[in-house]
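User: Let's play a game. I give you a shape written as tokens, and you guess the letters that built it. Ready? Here's round one.
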């Protein structure tokens, strides 16, 4: 992909996540242009109108318009938020069958438009569907990115910040693996202001490993709690998508936990999975390999196996 000047985004799917993403994009002034596409054209047109009415209050007004798949030709990023939603009691992985069919149709039409940018996928199960986009599009792996564990990592940092009474921006740590039930916290590399969390537990009796174990369960199961309370999660993931979009369009070389294809990193192959990666205008520049301990290595391998087992019947 040539390095062209212009920050244009096409959003496919204007449901809860998509419209929240558009709202975040407008407020943060990340892009110059946003094309909104949805099967329900009236819904998308309504969102365009509603968002445009708020432009007078935005720091950097975004050119927002309704569009179709043909409009993807000239954009830099296509963000996919379309698909069936996760229902109460339903796991992300139960969504596979429904969403693979939807995605085949979407990706085929986007590629047919002449689109030559970066795919950013948010729909669940995100690791499986990002792999599907890579296969359906024929694009190089660095230009097909999933939201991965960016939200899980944000939840993790937030809760650790609450526990240790520090701002989450000063908590450095990652959730990796499947964006789902087999994900894992990499406690061996978590630090707060440069001090290892493991050392803090050893030195201060008020901090306990059991508390951290419970904290992780709250991170992992957060989506179920939110879905049971209000039917869907959308603000957090929308903010995460805006963050990834900014890293791409502004050529940041930022390290974010996204879903990307592993080709030997962490000892895994042929699987899209959440890991820290350097993100810039070309997409995923490289995967950052954390120094996992033996337990974490085993957990990560099991998580990758979960995803490969789901992919096998389909690819």
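Assistant: Ready! My guess for every position:
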């Amino acid at each position: 992909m040539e390095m062209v000047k212009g920050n244009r985004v096409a959003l496919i799917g204007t449901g809860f996540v998509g419209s929240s993403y558009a709202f975040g994009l407008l407020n943060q002034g990340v892009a110059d242009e946003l094309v909104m596409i949805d099967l329900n054209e009236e819904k998308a047109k309504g969102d365009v109108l509603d968002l445009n009415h708020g432009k007078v209050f935005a720091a950097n007004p975004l050119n927002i318009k309704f569009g179709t798949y043909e409009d993807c030709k000239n954009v830099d990023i296509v963000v996919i938020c379309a698909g069936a939603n996760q229902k109460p009691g339903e796991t992300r992985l139960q969504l596979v069958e429904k969403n693979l069919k939807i995605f085949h149709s979407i990706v085929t039409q986007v590629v047919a438009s002449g689109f030559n940018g970066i795919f950013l996928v948010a729909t669940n199960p995100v690791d499986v569907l990002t792999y599907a986009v890579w296969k359906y599009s024929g694009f190089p792996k660095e230009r097909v990115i999933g939201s991965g564990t960016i939200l899980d990592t944000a939840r993790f940092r937030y809760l650790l910040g609450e526990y240790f009474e520090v701002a989450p921006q000063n908590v450095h740590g990652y959730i990796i693996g499947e964006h789902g039930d087999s994900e894992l916290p990499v406690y061996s590399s978590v630090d707060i202001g440069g001090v290892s969390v493991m050392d803090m537990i050893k030195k201060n009796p008020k901090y306990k490993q059991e508390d951290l174990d419970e904290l992780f369960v709250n991170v992992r199961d957060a989506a179920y709690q939110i879905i049971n309370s209000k039917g869907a999660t959308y603000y957090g993931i929308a903010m995460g998508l805006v963050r990834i979009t900014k890293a791409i369009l502004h050529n940041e070389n930022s390290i974010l936990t996204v879903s990307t294809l592993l080709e030997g990193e962490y000892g895994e192959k042929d699987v899209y999975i959440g890991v820290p990666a350097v993100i810039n205008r070309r997409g995923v520049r490289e995967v950052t390999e954390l120094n996992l301990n033996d337990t974490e290595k085993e957990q990560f391998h099991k998580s990758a196996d979960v995803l490969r087992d789901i992919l096998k019947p389909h690819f």
